[in-house]
Structures are given as structure tokens and as C-alpha cells.
Design brief:
The complex is a heterodimer of chains A (about 625) and B (about 575). With about 625 residues, chain A is of the alpha/beta class. Chain A has 19 helices and 16 strands. Among the domains of chain A are: about 160 residues, ABC transporter type 1, transmembrane domain (ABC transporter transmembrane region fold, Up-down Bundle), CATH 1.20.1560.10; about 35 residues, no CATH class; about 240 residues, P-loop containing nucleotide triphosphate hydrolases (Rossmann fold, 3-Layer(aba) Sandwich). Chain A is about 60% helix and about 15% strand. In chain A, the strands form 4 sheets. A 6-stranded mixed β-sheet of chain A has the order 10-13-14-7-15-16, with helices on both faces. A 4-stranded antiparallel β-sheet of chain A has the order 2-1-3-4, with no helix packed on it. The longest helix of chain A has about 55 residues. In chain B, helix 14 crosses helix 16. Chain B has 2 domains: about 325 residues, Up-down Bundle (ABC transporter transmembrane region fold), CATH 1.20.1560.10; about 240 residues, P-loop containing nucleotide triphosphate hydrolases (Rossmann fold), CATH 3.40.50.300. In chain B, the strands form 3 sheets. In chain B, strands 6-9-10-3-11-12 form a 6-stranded mixed β-sheet. A 4-stranded antiparallel β-sheet of chain B has the order 2-1-4-5, with no helix packed on it. Chain B has a two-stranded antiparallel sheet with strand order 7-8. The longest helix of chain B has about 50 residues. Chain B has about 575 residues and is an alpha/beta fold. The chains are: A alpha/beta (about 625), B alpha/beta (about 575).
Chain lengths: ~625, ~575
């Protein structure tokens, strides 16, 4: 999918939760406290050197140039020493600004990494519901757009903030020392300037949000039309699409123009108000100096004038940071929202263990064997063992995703070890929901599901899922080699095991024909493979895991008949000797099932073997003879 | 290259020209203001004249007002020029893509076109807006500051001449080193996106194999890569400010030392304290513009790639053009292939259709069967001239397709593409793509034909039901039926269904075919399918294999004499007890 450039405005822009800043500080504290303290100290020194620079002019004029002008034979050693001292101060300032820039970058990157990792780790614990109810694009933008706003805020705004505050305080102290009334005057004027900034900034923000909104709209439209460009061509729809595009584009232009107009005008206004301020200070200062009301030297008034510039500069820069900081906090807000999601409950105490291969009794072993058992803790602290057979019972299960509409209604069924159960029914009949409940992607509220007689809610989720294999309708492959993808179900598998699994799945043949064989790199969800080949890989992956129970959701996508035959054989091999639940779309799958469960609106309406159901001439007969594609 | 981009300025020429002019005025004022300030200090404070302070104060305020006016005007014009340029560039790109043939689209790939029309355009627009304002401002500032510096004191101003190239090369060298590092980080970002995207879309798999730890490890690795890459770049970036400070401070100190000596030694004749202060201000302005230039340099290198990508689209000519004196009407739905060969890359050796000869009468129903890559889609795409043949000719209604007006031809030949899409909007709006002027009754009629009316009526908002982008809120089978209805609304002479009922159940599928036969018998219908059932009652069936016609005949004929057809038929019906009773 293409990335659209416009950063979507955070949903709750302008309304940032109270604790966000504090929480963000929490990430900086602890691990980076020392570094941050050093950063602040270095910034202060560096800013101090800068302020000292503007004061130096006063010293230069008052203490050296003026007296030297009066001397017939001026000696410059004192001046040289003063310049040398200043050079040293500057040098320290430069070193400090390098140090704080570097350290702050490390802190900012470190914090981003920590937050990013914590967010992802947290995301792994979230229930499936989270992924089903949030769009992928939205989830992903947490890792890109939102983290980016943090980078801007931590990397630039924070140092700018400390620096500006230090400079302002430094300049303020220096100004007060020269003249209190003039300083008061400056402060009054600054308040006036700030109110103007606020007014303009408000408009800028308003139109800027509009601009982003329309940029999003135009980009969205362009994306939709370009993605469907072939359909546009087929329908001669170019004219219409141009018309609509022009409307949107024109609106975007309007908002973009207004937003940038305000944005561009702000700086000249502020700059030149600064100049006006300069003149006013000069006039007032001139009156004070020349009329002898206060005793101010010319040097003092000159450096005071210099200080007014030093003072208002950082204030303006600070005003510019306000937007970035607001965006950063809004981004942090969204990140924390994800982190605060309720994780999946996993309080099952029953675990999965290997047991000795050739012993009649069940004896737990640390070795990896072919036999498994459920290890059930007893009240008295001992454990009992139940060998894993793959016996699944679903008892009177009623389920709803939203608490309102029942998706399953009083469903009961069982599968004995090694039996194959097929679910058929129209879209929304509840087939996928049943499988979602068996592996606890969602938890049953009414009724219960038993695995070898144990309630699945008592089983540790990871262990439960390891004992259940899954082949999904949409094949997901990860970036990596074919081997790595097959090994996804058993990471410590040997090459021999991988090849064996691929052979079971009928995938070995095509893999061997690839130039790099099992080491072929897959990218983009296996875009370099055909649909059928991708299905074969997902079957191989399930085969390697070798679980006692399998859940299969057959793919409906159209593949040609020859490939389909190969896939079918792979599926058949996989299903041998396992308890299998299959959401069926194919003739042969259903026919071979031990029991066929016909679902309609969340209820089981018919069940039984193929022949018997056909003889009943009920719904199944209808589906089977009239309309076989059940999706 | 630049010329092509500049052609997008068009009606915004005036603001585009006025912007730099006002920028120039702004810069001149900014350069003059320190000079006036110097006079104010020298003649006012050191000359101890309140009158002079008033005099220069008023001049300064007037200058500030002028500077404000110039600054504001340049800002406003820049906003207009920038937004206008962006508008026109978007317009040109969008129009260009609208004119693209299938081949052009394939060449760029849809995803890449989208990036070019969104992200890249924004980048180019930013460069333009920056160029007309900042790019001129920086060199102007540099030159004016330099000139003013020389006017104040020639020898002292030489310091500038020494410092500027020194700092400039320093900054640019730094930028050149940082650029590839940043580029590398952005590639790592792609990796991060891939890991998250794969995790999110494969979350069922992750959870069912209990592989959360493995995923965390994977993510931790790319996350660390990004951290490492960024810190490597940022460590260098941290040098940027110190370099600038070094230059500025050296400048201040040197001017202070030498300036003070000159003032004292010449007794304020050659230089005054006020001018000394101005000189320092010019120095700071000068170095500031050097930094701005180096920043522009970085921006330009980063956006170069975007500019190139945008230009590639603007330079692409559609390879299918309307003929000079086009035929405006398609007489009937007959189709004739005469020795047609076709290759997507126009290379005779890589043909995916070879030696196709075919005659289809108007009103016939033709089924097309064949494995993946056998050339079925390529065959039908040639009929409405979505692609041009590499060799041979295709006739529709007795005339070469290349003689027709493209719109007329495509209105007469409706294709329901294999990878079909619906657009955001209501169901009715989507159907009306076929004919914008169609009445509600007409829309309903085609939906009934395509067996879509029933489920549409089942939605609470019926024909006003909103369809999400790509049609994600309807099922695959429903989507296909809507696409068929949309094509039917065109009232075509030829209707092509490219595997368009694969997700529709066989019962509905057969109802659609029945409706076609009864309601629109005069339309020539070409139906590509995987299921034999979908094509077996067609007038004739084409069996495609490896880009060639392997068999052409009725169901019965092919069962008798076509090996491929027989195999496919048997594998799909094998052991199907219900079929035989």
C-alpha cells in the first residue's frame, strides 16, 4: 500500500490528556536522568556564553575603546587579554553546544526506541479484538507518524526550550542590572507582541488544520482513482474524475494559500515590531541618558539595546515551538492510548509438556518427544497428567462479539481424536467464530469448550495454541527465506524436518525448482510466488508444527485446476491422523468429513455424514446441489 | 527539466515574479536597518543629541514599516505562488495519468503512481515555495551584507571573505556526509513498517503459533537498527551548530579586536563604535545566510529524487492515441482476430499470445477456459484496445479497433476486469459509472440482471448504501455482481467477464447466465471462468493454453476431441454423485 504523505492530524488535536507530559517525562527520568541534567547544564553554559557575547560589547566600548581614545599612547594588552578571555568563554560555549546537541540526540533516540519497543511488546499481548477493530493503517501510524512527532519534540523543541529560557533569563538579569525601568518597558512591549503572535498563530493553526485535511482529501482521492485507474479507463470515466479532482484541488489551494499567508506574514511582523521596540528603547534610553534622569553610560544603553535583541529573539523561537510541542504531546497521547489497551487474559494454569516416548505411564520429560500431555495443577500442589489426544467438545456455546447480536446460538458439537468436522454455511453464519473460540482468539461467555476434557479457559493460552495448528484463508508470509517461513511453526526444526514437512504439503517440488531453493527470499507477503504456491507453504508450515488438532480455513481464491489438485493433496496429507475442523469450500473436503455441520445465522441447522445429509434433502442438499460456493 | 516544472506556474506568474522582488526589498531594508541603528547610536548617543535620536528613530520606524510591508507582501505572494504551483502540478499530473494506457500504468505500477502523485508532489511544491523565497533571500543577504561590510570598512570586511568559504564548505561537507546516513535510516524505516505491517496483518498466525517472542525479537532488531542509524547521523548533525558558532564567534572576536584598534588608532575617523556594532550584525547575518544556503543544498538533494519521479510521469506519453479521423460508431458485436500476436513488452520473442485467429459472430456467447498465464485476460484486453496488438489485427463490428474513437469503442465493449474495484460512494453512484444519466429504474434493471438487486434491497439504505473505498464492506461475490451491473449499464455491444463470478455461488452464477441469455441476447458475451459449469452451455468455448488457442468448439465437441478440456471437466466433476442423480 502506498504511503500518503499528509500526516493525519491527531484525532484529539488540541485536547491533550493531563497526565501525558508527566508520563513522557517518566521515560526520560530514570534511565536518562544524568544525561538530561548534563544536557541542561551544557545548554545553560552555551546560552550563557551567547549572552556574555552581547554584554562583551558594552565592556569593549566602555572599558577599553572609550578610555583608550582618551589616551595619547594607547596600550592594547588589556584589550587583548579581554578578547582572549572572551574567546575562552566562547570556546567553552561551542564545546558545550556540541556536547548537548549530541547527548540530547542520544537521549531522544533512546526514548523513542524505548517507547517504540514497549509499544510493540504491549501490542503483542493485545487480544485479537484490538486488531479486528482498528485499521492496519491506523495501528501502523503509531510507529511512524506518532513517533515522528516525538522526535521533533524531544530532539528540537526541548533543547530550544531550555536554551530560550536560559537566554531569556540571562538577558533579563543583565537588563535589570543595567536599568529596571527600561526592562519594565521591554516587558510591556513583549506582552503586546505576544498577543499579536497569539492572534496570528491561532489563524495559522486553524487554516493549517484545514490544509492538512484537504491535502488528505486530495491525496485520498488521487490514491483511490489511481488505484482504480484501469477501471476508470474501461468506463471512459476520465472526464468525471477530472471534474471531481479539480473541485477538491481548488479547495486545497484556497486553504493552503490562507494558511501559508498567515504563516509567512508572522515573521516579518515580529521582526519589525522588534525594530520598533529598538527605536522606542533608544528614544526612552536617550531621554534617560541625555537628560540625566538616571545615570546610564552610553555603553550601557548600547548594550541594553543589544540585549533587547537577545531577549526577543528566543521568545519568537519559543512561540514557533508551541505547535511542535502540541503535536508531540498529541502523538504521545495516541501512543499511550495503545499502551493502555487491556491485554489478553492468560490465567490458565494447565501447561503442555512432553512425556516419555515408550513408557506406559505418563512421565514428564524435558526432551522433545512426539508425545505430549497436559500438566494439570491440583489443589494440593501436585500435578496430574492427561495425555494430549485432540478430543474437542463444544458445549452449549452462545457468543456475541459486541454483547448485543448473538453470532453463535447454543452450539454443541464434538470431535473425537482423528475425526474431521466440516463447517458449511453462508457468510456470517458463524463458521469462523467457532474456530476463533477454540483457540481462544475470543473467549466464550456462555457454555464451555473442552480440550481432552479440560476447559480451554484453564489452559495456558500459548500452550493451547501450540497444540492447535491453523491454516488460514488468507496466506500470510513474512519477509525472510522460505525455510524461515516454514520454520515459523517450530523454530528449532532441523533442515530435514523442514523438507519433510514441505514434502507432506506437496511444496517440496516447486521449492526445489527455485534457483535458491529453501533459501529463496520472500518479500511483500510472498509476491514473487503464485497464489497456489503460497498456500502450499502455509500448509507446510502447519505440517512442521505437527499439532494434534488442526483448524483449516480453505482458500476460496481461484487457482487453476492443476494447482488446485496439488494443493488439495497437500491438505489431505496434512489432515491425516489429526482432529480437524475445516471451514470447507471444496467438494472433496466436505465429502470426506466425519461430520458436516451446517450453520445458519449462528445455529446448527443440520449435522451428519455427507450421504445421510444428502438423503435428508434439507438445506445441505440445497447448498450442495444448487450452490456449492458457500461464501 | 526545470522548464517543464516551471510551466506549472501559469496564471500565478505575477505572484511568482513579485515574490522575489519584494524579498529583495525586504533584504535591502534588513541590511539598511543596522546601518540606521549605527547612526542612531553614533550621532544620537555618542554625539549626545536627542534630536539625532528622534531623527534616526523616525527613519528607523519608517524603514521598519517598509520592511514589514515588503516582508508581508513577499510572504503573501509566496503563499499564493506556492499553493498555485502545487495546484497546477497536481492538476497536470492527474490529467496526465488519466490519459495513460494500461501499458503506461503497468510500467509505473499503481503504488508508485500514487506515491508520485501525493508524497512527491508535496515535496516538489515545498521546494518551489522555498526556492522563490529562501533561495533568493540567502544569496541576496549574503551579497548585500558583504557590500555593506565593505562600505563600512574594506580591510575588516575581508574577514568575511575568508570566513564564508571556510564555514560554507564545512557545512556542505557535513551535509554530504549526513545525507547518505539519513537515507539509510529511512530504508530501515521501511523495514520497520514491513515488520509491523506483517505482524498486524498476520496476527492470527502469530498468536496461533504462539510466536509473540519471535516477533518482539524481530521488531527489537529493526528498532535497534533505526536507533543506531539515527544516532550515527545525529552525532554528525550535532556538529552543525558548533561549526556555525565557531564562525560567528571568530567573526565577532576578530572584528572586535581589529575594530577596536582601528577606532582607537584613527581616533574614530576610519570607524566608529556604532559602525563596529553594525559590522558585527552584518557578520552574523552573512553567516546566517551561509547556513541557509547549506540547508537549501540539503533540501535540494533530498528532493531531487522526488523531482525526478514527478518529471518521469509528466514526460510519459500515452502509447495508445486516438486515430486522426476516428469512426464514431460500432456497428455490431462481431469480433475477428486475424493472426494476432501480443507481448506486454512489445518483444516478439516474449509473446504471451501467438497466432490467434478467431471469428465471433455478433450475439454469440463464448466461454474461455485455461490455466493461469495461458493468455485469457490478455486475449480479451485487446478487444477494447486496452493494449495494442504486437502483430496482426483485431476487428470489432467489421472495422479495425485502431480506426475507432477510443471512447466510442470502449463504450461499446464493456469489460469487467479480473481485479475489479468499487469506489467510495453509494451503490447507485458506483453503478452509474456505466452511464451517468441513467434513471433509477435503469439502475435497478441492470442490478436485477446481475442478480444484485436482491441483496441491495436487503441493505437498510438500499441503493444509497455507502460503499467503502475498494468495496471492502461488501462480500467478494456481492462486489463482483455490482461490477457486472455497472458494466451492463453501459448497454454495450460486447460484454466481457474476466473471471468475474469466481466468488459468486454456482446457483447465482447460473441465474446470471440465464438472465443474460433471456434479457440481453443480442450482446456478444465473452466469459472467462475457472469452472466448466460457468461456460459449458456457451455457444462456443475457447480453450487457451500457453498463449495459443488449443481448442474452439461446443462443450460436446471439446469433450470429445480436446484433452485439456476433458481433464479439467473430469477433475471438477469427478465422483460428484449428485450430478448424475
Amino acid at each position: 500500500m502506498a504511503k500518503v504523505s499528509s500526516k493525519p492530524m491527531p484525532k484529539n488535536f488540541g485536547k491533550i490528556k493531563k497526565g501525558t507530559l508527566k508520563r513522557l517525562v517518566g521515560y526520560v527520568k530514570g534511565k536518562y536522568t544524568l544525561k538530561i541534567i548534563l544536557v541542561i547544564i551544557f545548554i545553560m553554559i552555551s546560552a550563557g556564553a551567547n549572552v556574555a557575547g552581547s554584554l562583551f560589547l558594552k565592556v569593549l566600548i566602555d572599558d577599553y575603546i572609550e578610555p583608550l581614545l582618551l589616551e595619547p599612547n594607547p596600550v592594547f594588552t588589556g584589550l587583548l587579554r579581554a578578547i582572549g578571555t572572551m574567546a575562552l568563554i566562547y570556546l567553552v560555549g561551542i564545546v558545550c553546544s556540541y556536547l548537548y546537541n549530541r547527548m540530547m540526540a542520544l537521549v531522544s533516540q533512546g526514548v523513542q526506541r524505548d517507547i517504540r519497543n514497549e509499544m510493540f511488546n504491549k501490542m503483542q499481548t493485545l487480544p485479537l479484538k484490538y486488531f479486528d477493530t482498528n485499521t492496519h493503517g491506523d495501528v501502523m501510524s503509531h510507529y511512524t507518524n506518532d513517533i515522528d512527532t516525538l522526535r521533533e519534540m524531544l530532539g528540537r523543541s526541548f533543547t530550544q526550550l531550555v536554551q530560550s529560557v536560559t537566554t531569556i533569563v540571562g538577558a533579563f538579569v543583565a537588563m535589570v542590572r543595567i536599568s529596571v525601568p527600561l526592562t519594565l518597558f521591554i516587558i510591556l512591549f513583549l506582552m503586546f507582541m505576544l498577543s499579536i503572535t497569539k492572534f496570528i498563530a491561532k489563524n495559522t493553526t486553524k487554516y493549517f488544520i484545514k490544509q492538512q485535511e484537504y491535502l488528505g482529501k486530495v491525496n485520498g482521492y488521487v490514491e483511490e482513482m489511481t488505484s482504480g485507474q484501469k477501471v476508470v479507463k474501461v468506463f471512459n470515466y476520465e472526464g468525471e474524475s477530472k471534474k471531481k479532482f479539480n473541485e477538491l484541488n481548488e479547495e486545497l489551494f484556497g486553504h493552503m494559500y490562507t494558511a501559508n499567508k498567515f504563516g509567512n506574514v508572522l515573521m516579518p511582523i515580529m521582526n519589525n515590531l522588534g525594530n520598533v521596540e529598538y527605536v522606542l528603547v533608544a528614544i526612552v534610553g536617550g531621554m534617560l541618558t541625555l537628560n540625566g534622569v538616571t545615570i546610564l553610560t552610553v555603553g550601557e544603553i548600547v548594550s541594553f539595546l543589544q540585549l533587547t535583541k537577545t531577549f526577543s529573539g528566543p521568545l519568537m523561537r519559543l512561540a514557533q515551538q508551541v505547535n511542535t510541542i502540541a503535536m508531540g504531546l498529541a502523538g504521545a497521547d495516541r501512543i499511550f492510548e495503545l499502551m493502555d489497551e487491556e491485554p489478553e487474559v492468560n490465567d490458565g494454569k494447565v501447561t503442555l509438556v512432553n512425556i516419555e516416548e515408550n513408557s506406559k505411564e505418563i512421565k514428564e520429560t524435558k526432551e522433545r518427544t512426539e508425545r505430549w500431555a497436559w500438566k494439570v495443577p491440583q489443589d494440593d500442589g501436585t500435578f496430574s497428567y492427561v495425555e494430549v489426544k485432540g478430543f474437542i467438545e463444544i458445549k452449549n456455546v452462545t457468543f456475541s462479539y459486541d454483547g448485543e447480536k448473538d453470532v453463535l446460538h447454543d452450539v454443541s458439537l464434538y470431535a473425537k481424536p482423528g475425526q474431521k468436522i466440516a463447517f458449511v454455511g453462508a457468510t456470517g453464519a458463524g463458521k469462523t467464530t467457532i474456530t476463533n473460540l477454540i483457540n481462544r482468539f475470543y473467549d466464550v461467555e456462555q457454555g464451555e469448550i473442552l480440550y481432552d476434557g479440560i476447559n480451554v479457559k484453564d489452559i495456558n493460552k500459548y500452550d493451547l495454541r501450540l497444540s492447535l495448528g491453523m491454516v488460514l484463508q488468507d496466506t500470510n508470509l513474512f519477509t525472510g527465506t522460505i525455510k524461515e517461513n516454514i520454520k515459523y511453526s517450530k523454530q528449532d526444526a532441523t533442515d530435514e524436518e523442514v523438507i519433510k514437512a514441505a514434502k507432506i504439503a506437496n511444496a517440496h517440488d516447486f521449492i526445489s525448482l527455485l534457483p535458491d531453493g529453501y533459501d529463496t527470499m520472500l518479500t511483500n507477503n510472498g509476491a514473487n510466488l503464485s497464489q497456489g504456491q503460497r498456500q502450499l507453504l502455509s500448509i507446510a508450515r502447519a505440517a512442521l508444527g505437527d499439532p494434534p488438532v488442526m483448524i483449516l480455513d480453505e482458500a476460496t481464491s481461484s487457482i487453476d485446476t492443476r494447482t488446485e489438485k496439488i494443493v488439495q493433496e497437500g491438505m489431505d496429507n496434512l489432515m491425516k491422523n489429526r482432529t480437524v475442523f475445516v471451514i470447507a469450500h471444496r467438494l472433496s473436503t466436505v465429502r470426506n468429513a466425519k461430520a458436516i455441520i451446517v450453520l445458519e445465522h449462528g445455529k446448527i441447522i443440520e449435522r451428519g455424514e455427507h450421504e445421510a445429509l444428502l438423503a435428508e434433502k434439507g438445506e445441505y442438499y440445497q447448498l450442495y446441489t444448487g450452490a456449492f460456493e458457500l461464501e | 527539466m526545470i522548464k517543464k516544472l516551471l510551466s506549472c506556474v501559469r496564471e500565478y506568474k505575477l505572484p511568482t515574479i513579485l515574490t522575489p522582488i519584494f524579498v529583495m526589498g525586504e533584504v535591502v531594508m534588513e541590511v539598511l536597518i543596522p546601518l540606521i541603528m549605527a547612526d542612531l547610536i553614533d550621532k544620537g548617543f555618542y554625539g549626545e543629541s536627542m534630536e539625532a535620536i528622534w531623527h534616526y528613530g523616525i527613519i528607523l520606524i519608517l524603514a521598519a514599516i517598509l520592511a514589514l510591508a515588503f516582508g508581508a507582501l513577499s510572504g503573501i505572494f509566496a503563499a499564493k505562488a506556492g499553493a498555485g504551483f502545487g495546484k497546477n502540478l497536481r492538476h497536470d499530473l492527474f490529467y496526465r495519468v488519466q490519459g495513460f494506457s494500461f501499458k503506461n500504468i503497468d510500467k509505473f505500477s499503481t503504488a508508485s503512481l500514487v506515491t508520485r502523485l501525493t508524497t512527491d508532489v508535496t515535496n516538489v511544491q515545498n521546494v518551489f515555495a522555498g526556492a522563490i523565497r529562501v533561495a533568493l533571500r540567502a544569496p541576496l543577504m549574503l551579497i548585500f551584507s558583504l557590500v555593506m561590510g565593505f562600505r563600512i570598512h574594506q580591510k575588516l570586511a575581508l574577514i568575511f571573505l575568508v570566513l564564508v568559504p571556510f564555514i560554507g564548505t564545512g557545512l556542505i561537507m557535513l551535509a554530504k556526509k549526513i545525507h547518505p546516513l539519513m537515507e539509510a535510516v529511512f530504508h530501515r524505516y521501511d523495514d520497520l513498517n514491513a515488520v509491523v505491517e506483517e505482524n498486524v496483518s498476520g496476527i492470527r498466525l502469530v498468536k496461533s503459533y504462539a510466536n509473540e517472542e519471535l516477533e518482539k525479537e524481530k521488531f527489537g532488531k529493526v528498532s535497534k537498527d533505526i536507533y543506531d542509524g539515527f544516532t550515527r547521523a545525529e552525532k554528525l548533525l550535532a556538529l552543525n551548530m558548533p561549526i556555525m558558532q565557531l564562525g560567528t564567534y571568530i567573526c565577532i572576536l576578530l572584528i572586535s579586536w581589529l575594530g577596536a584598534r582601528i577606532i582607537v588608532l584613527t581616533n574614530s575617523v576610519e570607524l566608529t563604535t556604532g559602525l563596529l556594532q553594525s559590522l558585527i550584525t552584518y557578520g552574523i547575518q552573512l553567516l546566517g545566510s551561509v547556513m541557509m544556503l547549506s540547508f537549501m543544498f540539503v533540501m535540494a538533494t533530498i528532493s531531487k529524487a522526488s523531482i525526478d519521479r514527478v518529471l518521469e510521469v509528466l514526460d510519459e506519453e500515452s502509447d495508445i492515441q486516438n486515430p486522426k479521423n476516428p469512426v464514431m460508431e460500432v456497428k455490431d458485436g462481431s469480433i475477428e482476430f486475424d493472426n494476432v500476436g501480443f507481448s506486454y513488452v512489445g518483444d516478439k520473442k516474449k509473446e504471451c499470445l501467438k497466432n490467434i485467429n478467431l471469428k465471433i459472430k455478433s450475439g454469440e456467447t463464448i466461454g474461455i477456459l485455461g490455466g493461469t498465464g495461458s493468455g485469457k485476460s490478455s486475449l480479451v484486453n485487446l478487444i477494447p484496445r486496452l493494449y495494442d496488438t504486437t502483430s496482426g489485427t483485431i476487428k470489432v463490428g467489421g472495422k479495425d479497433v485502431k480506426e475507432y474513437d477510443l471512447v466510442a469503442l470502449r463504450d461499446a465493449v464493456a469489460v469487467v476486469l479480473q481485479k475489479n474495484v468499487l469506489f467510495s460512494g453509494t451503490i447507485a453512484e458506483n453503478i452509474r459509472w456505466g452511464d451517468l444519466t441513467a434513471s433509477d429504474k435503469e439502475v435497478e434493471r441492470v442490478c436485477k440482471l446481475a442478480q444484485a438487486d436482491e441483496f441491495i434491497q436487503g441493505f437498510p439504505d438500499k441503493y444509497d448504501t455507502h460503499i467503502e473505498q475498494g468495496g471492502t464492506n461488501v462480500s467478494g461475490g456481492q462486489k463482483q455482481r455490482l461490477c457486472i451491473a455497472r458494466a451492463l449499464l453501459k448497454k454495450p455491444k460486447i460484454l466481457i467477464l474476466d473471471d468475474s463470478t469466481s466468488a459468486v455461488d454456482t446457483k447465482t452464477d447460473s441465474l446470471i447466465r440465464k438472465a443474460f441469455k433471456e434479457e440481453i441476447p443480442n450482446i456478444t458475451k465473452l466469459i472467462i471462468a475457472q469452472r466448466v459449469a460457468s461456460v459449458q452451455d456457451a455457444d462456443k468455448i475457447i480453450v487457451m493454453d500457453n498463449g495459443k488457442i488449443n481448442g474452439f468448439g461446443t462443450h460436446e465437441e471439446l469433450l470429445k476431441n480436446n484433452q485439456i478440456y476433458k481433464e479439467v471437466y473430469e477433475s471438477q466433476t469427478k465422483g460428484d454423485v449428485s450430478e448424475n442423480g
